[in-house]
Amino acid sequence: MFEETNATSSPESSRRQFIQKSGATVAGAMLISNGLSSAVYAQGSDTIKIGLVGCGGRGTGAAANALHAHPANKLVAMGDLFIDKILGTPQKKGSLDNLILSEGKEQIDVPKDRCFAGWDAYKGVIEASEVVLLATTPHFRPMHVEACLNAGKHIFCEKPVGVDARSVRKVMELSKAAEEKKINLVSGLCYRYDKYVKETMEQIHTGKIGDIVSINSNYLAGWLWNNPRLPQWSDMEYQIRNWLYYTWASGDHVVEQHIHSLDKALWVMNNQPPTRVTSTGGRQQRTAPEFGNVYDHFAQVYEWEREGNAPVRAFSFCRQFTGQPTVSVDVSDLVYGTEGVASLDQHRIFGKDGKVAWKRSPTTPENMYDSEHKALFAAIRSGQVINNGDYMCKATLMGIMARESAYSGKTITWDEIYESKQDLTPAGGWQWEKLPVAPVAVPGPDGYKFV
């Protein structure tokens, strides 16, 4: 898929070196003033041409968010592995028609000759656009980020940024290249752009709850979707059309969905990665063959070592179960400190007496998905640069280390996951042919091995 540089494949890469190398973006959404990239939008016009790579539900949503960001933004190209995802079928509308229905035609100019399909679809989109929205199956994210940077195009990059440590190391190197080239790289980790969560996090970081003791994060969600197999589909097509259920494609849901919770824990800890994680998980409801080889629940404990003090622990739980309302749904984050407790989802801080000591300002909320795109396009128009590469890579690695701990039954350190040589690319590459499903991971001496 790509070649690693010596700098990222060296066994001397360590947690400390990783933190030092990425320290330039430790604050998250870093702004570099007065730096226009090679992807300056059309001179003499306020129009910015947008291309979408990956036309599923999230990609369609990202395109709508990008159009909401500024009235002069225009969607001009779309690409997907499958043309029906863009143009639809007699039975189902595609992304393009859905966008026209929801957003109108004024900001959409995507003729059929700028609808690209196949393995190289991203190339046509990149060529036609000034800003590229990357929302494909996560496995392909590093390749698409690299192609955008080589073409000098600004990037909105959905989470996660890879499915194994090797691919994330590649994106970390690419994010540094984006910084050097003054190309915007905005992450789909949308809570970082949520006004109320930002206000609450500021209270935590200025000492409102005292020293942080522990974090509790839940992402207890329902089932998502499944596309029944059609006779003409190869194994590869079936798996990509149902990418959520294959570790090689999605990274498993502790990486693909729970990353939002992990990123908030990382944010609480000032973007410093954890020292280690111990995780467990398995399959209780999704045991049929159509659910591939991923788990349906995980539970993990992350630790951040502190010199002279007990480690900070984050207790993190995620699942994708059906059966509501009998089965609970809960997306919440609590941060416990020596002087109180912060609720990130309620945007409140409770003192030692249990009473509300602070709550967010009573202003009109803004859709956080729109907010991240408004930040991106405002930066482009003002000649500034946002680079979210640091935290989007660290949060992805946090998910991967939890998955590998649960699959193997082994406590895994940050150094171990960062230096892992695992490569989840299918053995035969990207071919329309038979693609065996890896067995469901079972920990134990004769089971799954972390590499």
Task: Outline the structure in words.
By secondary structure, the protein is of the alpha/beta class. It has two domains: 208 residues, Rossmann fold (3-Layer(aba) Sandwich), CATH 3.40.50.720; 193 residues, Dihydrodipicolinate Reductase, domain 2, CATH 3.30.360. Helices cover 33% and strands 21% of the residues. It is built from 16 helices and 17 strands. The strands form three sheets. A nine-stranded mixed sheet has the order 15-14-13-12-8-11-10-9-17. A six-stranded parallel sheet has the order 4-3-2-5-6-7, with helices on both faces. It has a two-stranded antiparallel sheet with strand order 1-16. Strand 2, helix 3 and strand 3 form a beta-alpha-beta unit. Helix 3 crosses helix 14, helix 8 runs antiparallel to helix 15 and helix 13 crosses helix 15.
Produce the secondary structure layout.
Blueprint: H1 6-9, H2 15-21, E1 30-32, E2 48-53, H3 57-68, E3 73-80, H4 83-87, H5 95-103, E4 115-117, H6 121-128, E5 131-134, H7 141-150, E6 154-157, H8 165-181, E7 185-187, H9 195-205, E8 212-221, H10 235-241, H11 247-250, H12 253-256, H13 259-268, E9 276-282, E10 297-306, E11 309-320, E12 330-337, E13 340-343, E14 348-351, E15 356-359, H14 368-382, E16 385-387, H15 389-408, E17 412-413, H16 414-419
Parallel strand pairs: 2-3, 2-5, 3-4, 5-6, 6-7, 8-11
Antiparallel strand pairs: 1-16, 8-12, 9-10, 9-17, 10-11, 12-13, 13-14, 14-15
Helix pairs in contact: 3-5, 3-14, 7-8, 8-15, 13-15
